[in-house]
Predict the structure.
Amino acid sequence: MSSFDFDYWHIKILYDLSGYIVAFAVTWFFYRKVLSKHELPNPFESKEQKWEYYLYVIAGAMFGGMIISTFDGAMIPGRNPEWGMLISKSIAGALFWGIITAEFYKYSNHIKTPTGILFLPGIVLGVLVGRIWAIMTWLRDFTYGLPTSLPWGIDFWDGITRHPTMIYEMLLLAIFFVIFCIWLYSKHRKWWITNGFYVFIIVYFLYRFSVGFIQPYSTWWLGLSTYQVIAIPMVMYGLWMIKKYNS
């Protein structure tokens, strides 16, 4: 193993752990200090069902994120090492399968209360922290953009100026978090608590669909990448859920 590989995997572990820690801490803070209990009705029949739900969603998000990212990476020339397929993960894939798992569980157990708002602050800041660390892995993390002549392009140590798509995503998440906090303390608080998670899903996956045109991902359906393909049903899901809870 080269020193470059050694540094990459240690940075990768650090930014994964830091993202998880931030997500957990922020979720706990908002649950305890910001969101009151009457605004978050308990949809579960017992503590056992609540923890079962959490385990299902976490498992779906983790394995789904790995499956989608690994599948996409296998189609990118030069991404996988000579000794086999590179196992990786993605936030878009994790959100995609986490939502599918959550909705399937809620449907099977007749749960109709939206629960996404509880996880929203942690997801936003956890991913933001992860993208900060992703910059330090340069080209190894495959989150950079295509070559560009724009003045804000960045050379990731290979002599080619590229779109800093990690920074684009960080700015989007930071702006969204500020808006999220402002709306929580406005007259629209009740609407935001019910629909805020779905607004985030729409905004985030519209971004992933758009930025996919300037990222070096493989395309396999209508000229779209894997992440662009899954972005379409996710945007439709967000719109449908907002309509459902406001009709």
Q: What stands out?
A: The radius of gyration is 19 Å. Strands lie at 154-155, 161-162, 219-221, 224-225.
